[in-house]
Hints:
Layout: E1 3-13, E2 22-38, E3 42-49, H1 61-72, E4 78-84, H2 95-110, H3 117-132, H4 138-145, E5 148-154, E6 157-162, E7 168-175, H5 181-186, H6 194-213, H7 216-222, H8 228-232, H9 239-248, E8 253-256, E9 263-268, H10 270-285, E10 291-297, E11 304-305
Helix pairs in contact: 1-2, 1-3, 2-3, 2-4, 3-4, 6-7, 9-10
The site of L-homoserine has 13 residues, from helix 4 and helix 5.
Amino acid sequence: MDYLKIFAPATVANVSCGFDSLGFAVDAIGDEMTFTKTAKKGVKITNITGADLTYNVDENAASTVVKKMLSEVNADFGIELTIHKGFSPGSGLGSSAASAAGAAFGANQLLGNIFPKLELTKFAMFGEKVACGTPIADNVAAAIYGGFVLVRSYDPLEIIKLPVPTALRVVAIHPQIAIKTKDARAVLPEKISLKDAVTQWANVGGLISGLYTDNYNLISNSLIDVVAEPARKKLIPFFDEVKSSAIAAGALGAGISGSGPTIFALCKGDEVAQKVYNSVQESYKNTEIDFEMFISKVNQEGIKIIN
Ligand code: HSE
């Protein structure tokens, strides 16, 4: 294979209670990237559209990953890549993760598919570190594995793919402001109380159990975050209003997508999802802030080759 084009999905990390350890991929939006083998060694970005990102191969989340992979196997060829961002950096929808995970997937194809998904996740985490200072795995693992994932352990890295109840839908609103992951991590508490820790880990257990048993009530009751959301919601204009209107319209729960500002709501079925979409749209229309919204299924397959 000398060329491929891929789709790398946007992702929702944390999923309320699972800070840095839970995530899922969405179907509706993502990036497109192309990878071309070159006789000249090394990596080069030839085109970026859809966002203003660096072409510096040592600073771009995608090219750093490709460069690391080529050097790790001492490849006798190079790779040129193009990146078309389908959604904005700083949205909380795993923008750098889509680039980094897409890069790991694409480079691996040109290398003859030599790395398993776990290794691709590790390479992609390197790109996340370049982009935001921390090698977080929740978004990149969701993009690579598809569906819901649990980062059961960071050291050694262990990713568990979780089942996705078929009627689950996500509604998301992206207020058009950018929040850097680094800044959203800086407001997090360094310590939490034992009471909050108990609440949090019990809800992670409940959410995972709900996913395995198709128990939408349990999923709903477990979509609670007493760790990151209280500290971060002040960065997101009208967060409480959006969350209340989503839940009033029938959402199972709502929370901050990754480090924000996107707010996600999980819903059971298309009809409820549309009601939640309408209600959230109505609640945001009167603010002075521009926004984009989408409804999506959970993306089950992760990054895929599109030609
Ligand atoms: N889990 C990470 C965070 C995701 O919430 O900071 C960042 O994209």
